[in-house]
Amino acid sequence: MTPIEKVEGRAIPFGLKNVDTDVIIPAHWLKTTTRDGMGKGAFETLRADPDNLFDSPQFKGAPILIAGDNFGCGSSREHAAWALGDLGIRVVIAPSYSDIFSGNAVKNGILPVVLPQAAIDRLMEVAQTDPVHVDLDTQTVTTPFQDRFAFEIDPFRKMCLLGGLDEISLTEKSAAAIGAYEQTLDADRPWLRPTATRT
Amino acid sequence: MTRPRTLYEKIWDAHVVEQRPDGTCLIFIDRHLVHEVTSPQAFAGLRANGRTVRRPDLTLAVPDHNLPTTARKDARGNILPIADAESAAQLATLETNASEFGVRYIDAVAPEQGIVHVVGPEQGFSLPGTTIVCGDSHTACHGGIGALAFGIGTSEVEHVLATQTLLLQPAKTMEVRVEGAVGPGVTAKDIILHITGTIGAAGGTGHVIEYTGSAIRALSVEGRLTVSNMAIEGGARAGLIAPDEVTFAYLKDRPYAPKGAYWDAAVEYWKSLATDPGATYDKVVIIDAADIAPSVTWGTSPEDVVPITGVVPDPASFADPSKQAAAAKSLAYMGLEPGTRMQDVPVENIFIGSCTNSRIEDMRAAAAIVKGRKKAANVKWAIVVPGSGLVKAQAEAEGLDRIFTDAGLEWREPGCSACLAMNPDKVPAGERCASTSNRNFVGRQGPGSRTHLVSPAMAAAAAVTGKLTDVRELMA
């Protein structure tokens, strides 16, 4: 995973609320066994319109996406995060996210910034003409016009994003604790082990 | 004396392997369900890093999303090839991965094959009080038997395969209490559509919803699975319904359920899980069951719900300006005018199936409406897709398949089917579908498809009248 600290560039003023993962990447793009090449399918339905934001000269390849409430709702497909990443997006800024999407984003080096609607409205305005700056270390979003918005992020997620950390390697350090838990479980709830028997 | 706890808190506490200083917990996962779409990259990740599956015995793989629902064998019993090369490759990859990593696998022609969320409870693999994950957001379904069950992304699938744990922050708790008795023609699907319309598509974000109240207690396990299945449509990663005698009777003697003395010990444990008197939730929503009518969606978010007796809303009627804009966009996509009576909306396609509504009770409810009637002339495509091979066999033993086919509906093989446009079952662009699935998103049932979410009885009613219909008018 690519670490992320500071991102500066154009921000796509998308702004829609309840954007579901079927919109971010339609299901027919999910018939693959790799993580690659999903950018082509990102926002496919919207990009069928030749005047869409994503392919416009000023926003093509922009690293930041501004969206409305409940971004990434619906399906758990991590393909949505892969598609955004492949499109070049490193930061999404929205008032709220679906729980599954924000987790998937972080695991793919994409920072989901949460800001109130008033801040989103202001950034949507700035983004029309000017770049936006996001700093994960100081937890701020700034503009060339002295706007400064602070955001909160879970410390564990921040650490993973800054360090580009692989969560499985971190968890493997707890192998002994997992083994001990499994032993206790077998003693306390021995009926939990699935053994297929037909009656 | 210990602090009173909710059902969610009890399950969470029983699964904490380690707690980090920042409150993040390493949570043990009791059951991991795997299907072909969200697992290939996870297995590839294990392979690339020389890792194995820590607990193959707690993992169950079954293909569902890609499988065509047409015949899987020819007249001689030979297995038919899958025409779509990408689907065939993805399905073959699951089989290879299951074999290589030693994971339990139900193949495409096994009698137990079906939608992963139908198979789990049906096999007794999903049990109350357990943590269950799957790379699919409708894993919330298993909350219907009192399991803490939620969808995960592919990176998390790999994490669970490798470690049998997940790193999680505790969720907030929300109680949705439905009190009273529902009226005739009102089913579990109408209850959850009404709830989603009430709390909104993001109403449960960051929360686990526990459904309580007499209307929930009165539901069968099938109905409870339908309700909890759509917790995610209200933004909650998981739903929960406390296990009770109805749950225990459903699970007893299922293949993977505990047997003998183990069964008795399990039931005793499960009985201890109900939310303690005096325990509190972060949020409470109370709904009067008498207010729930047979319901239908008009837009492209599952929160866009009205009673079947209602009309298409005017976007200007919403207080929130962003909802006004979204509603206007939805209506343009759906080809609907404000003020149109929902019962005047014609439908050309009918889909009865999906992990929300493909269990035996759903098949019976749809058949009861269709019986002795014929598919309307304007309905071009009407399919009934049982959730598993076992549901299919049971329905056939009861003669339900004949009721459907006599009326002109098609009786199919089990799978996810027309819920998500990943297999040949799709709704054509610009056409409407009365669908018992869970999502009415733009393009969900195929590019340009227009979905109206309804119960199985309501879908059956639409099949015989050719338009969205108040099922109560067809009930004897």
What does this structure look like?
The complex is a heterodimer of chains A (199) and B (476). With 199 residues, chain A is of the alpha/beta class. Helix content of chain A is 33%, strand content 14%. Chain A has helices at 21-24, 44-47, 79-87, 99-106, 117-127, 155-163, 167-172, 175-188; strands spanning 6-9, 11-13, 64-66, 91-94, 111-114, 132-135, 140-142, 148-150. The termini of chain A are far apart. Chain B is α/β, with parallel strands linked by helices. The radius of gyration of chain B is 22 Å and the shape is globular. The longest helix of chain B has 17 residues, at 85-101. The mean pLDDT of chain B is 97. Chain B has 3 domains: 7-168, Aconitase, domain 3 (2-Layer Sandwich); 172-250 and 267-291, Aconitase, Domain 2; 297-474, Aconitase, domain 3, CATH 3.30.499. The N and C termini of chain B lie far apart (54 Å). The chains are: A alpha/beta (199), B alpha/beta (476). At the A-B interface, helix 4, helix 7 and helix 8 of A face helix 2, helix 3, helix 5, helix 10 and helix 11 of B.
SSE blueprint and pairings:
The complex is a heterodimer of chains A (199) and B (476).
Chain A lengths: L5 E4 L1 E3 L7 H4 L19 H4 L16 E3 L12 H9 L3 E4 L4 H8 L4 E4 L2 H11 L4 E4 L4 E3 L5 E3 L4 H9 L3 H6 L2 H14 L11
Parallel strand pairs in A: 2-3, 3-4, 4-5
Antiparallel strand pairs in A: 1-6, 6-7, 7-8
Chain B lengths: L6 H7 L2 E4 L5 E4 L2 E4 L5 H9 L10 E3 L23 H17 L2 E2 L10 H7 L8 E4 L13 E4 L2 H10 L1 E4 L3 E8 L8 H12 L7 E6 L1 H4 L3 H9 L8 E3 L4 H7 L9 H11 L11 E6 L6 E3 L7 E3 L13 H14 L14 E4 L7 H11 L10 E4 L4 H9 L2 H8 L2 E2 L20 E4 L14 E4 L2 H10 L11
Parallel strand pairs in B: 3-4, 3-6, 4-5, 6-7, 9-10, 9-12, 10-11, 15-16, 15-18, 16-17, 18-19
Antiparallel strand pairs in B: 1-2, 2-8, 13-14
Helix pairs in contact in B: 2-5, 6-8, 12-14, 12-15
